[in-house]
Design brief:
The protein is mainly beta and 344 residues long. It is built from three helices and 20 strands. It has a 16-stranded antiparallel β-sheet that branches. Strands 7-8 form a two-stranded antiparallel ribbon. Strands 12-13 form a two-stranded antiparallel ribbon. Strand 7 and strand 8 form a beta hairpin. Helix 1 packs across helix 2. The protein is elongated, with a radius of gyration of 28 Å. The two termini are 44 Å apart.
């Protein structure tokens, strides 16, 4: 089977950030006015009023082509092999430009004056280059000028695959094992605060992030109990991520970056309907997760961390009972969830 995807988006990031700009550029202005604090405050508030902010329109296009197929083969009466493969080619392009602008109000996203400082496009990432050629020159100083070559087009092809075995131990028990290889394509960041590039806090290459590859191994069982009135499912898994797409918050900007990660654990689930009208559900899961060099400390050191929204232990339960009442039905449902989130 063949799949073709084409996408084009004209997007926007930004918003008022007058207080941030005053704090960020205040020391620079203070130095440029010879250390006169009162004059520095006046100049800073004039340049960066409360409705001052970052205005960043950008365009992205994606074209993707894929071919895939899957086959199931009976190795024996009680043993089934499933195999599948997919080849994909994806091309992405971006055009990103950031301006210092004035908004309708400190709480508005409507731009009333683009490029309020008169410096042109402050940060550009387009046509295979990056630059802040509109760098603003102050009396006795200037915002540093940087420019260079950039990969504003990403073209990649990758293969994903599936291999699984299902073994019917008896009429009530299925055992299975599987391997899956998945790929999440790379892409481009859309920074809210591109001043980080000009001052060297971020490398221009961080506008891009690479594709993520997952090798997932899983084994488990599915059992029917109580003559079909209950089902018990269990699985253990090991997920090995290469170039995992993690994220970091720098100043006002959330950046995606690549590192390695491991996710492993197990889960159990029991579903039962012991009597008519009564449904029970119990579940439990354990996850051991680690993202390598996932966090950079204020001192510049990198440490491992746990991925967000990844609790270490979870348990859940639900009781549902329904009964006839007159010409209708009454349903009562009670559920609970218990979660432990690791501090690592």
């Amino acid at each position: 089977m063949r799949i073709i995807l084409k996408y084009e988006g004209d997007l926007f990031t930004g918003g008022p950030a007058g207080g941030f700009a005053q704090a960020a550029f205040g020391p620079l202005v203070l130095g440029l006015v010879g250390g006169d604090a009162d004059l520095a405050v006046a100049v800073t508030q004039e340049l960066f009023p409360t409705n001052f902010g970052f205005d960043s329109p950008f365009n992205t296009t994606t074209e993707s082509l894929a071919f895939f197929g899957q086959v199931e083969y009976d190795l024996a009466d009680d043993l089934v092999l499933t195999a599948g493969v997919r080849w994909s080619e994806e091309e992405k392009e971006t055009s990103f430009n950031q301006h210092f602008s004035l908004f309708e109000s400190p709480n508005s996203s409507t731009v009333t004056l683009r490029d309020s400082l008169g410096i042109g496009t402050y940060w550009s990432y387009d046509d295979g280059r990056y630059s802040n050629i509109g760098a603003y020159t102050f009396e006795g100083g200037a915002i540093p000028l940087i420019e260079g070559e950039a990969e504003t087009t990403i073209k990649d092809d990758f293969i994903t695959a599936k291999l699984g075995l299902d073994y019917q131990l008896n009429e009530d028990t299925l055992l299975y094992a599987s391997y899956n290889r998945g790929v999440k394509a790379g892409g481009f960041n859309a920074p809210l605060d591109a001043t980080l590039f000009a001052y060297g806090a971020l490398a221009p290459e961080q506008m891009n992030f690479d594709s993520e590859t997952l090798n997932a191994y899983e084994a488990g069982f599915k059992m029917t109990l109580m003559d079909g009135l209950a089902r018990l499912n269990g699985a253990a898994y090991y997920y090995d991520y290469q170039d995992y797409q993690a994220f970091a918050l720098d100043s006002l900007t959330l950046f995606v970056f690549n590192t390695d990660a491991v996710n492993k654990g197990f889960e159990l689930e029991l579903q039962a309907s012991p009597v008519e009208g009564l449904d029970l559900l119990l579940g439990a899961a354990y996850i051991d997760n680690n993202v390598e060099d996932g966090y950079t400390t204020p001192s510049g050191d990198t440490i491992d961390r746990r991925a967000i929204m990844t609790p270490e232990i979870t348990a859940n339960g639900m009781i549902r009972y329904e009964w006839a009442a007159g010409s209708g039905t009454v349903i009562n449902t009670t559920s609970a969830t218990w979660t432990i989130i690791s501090s690592s």
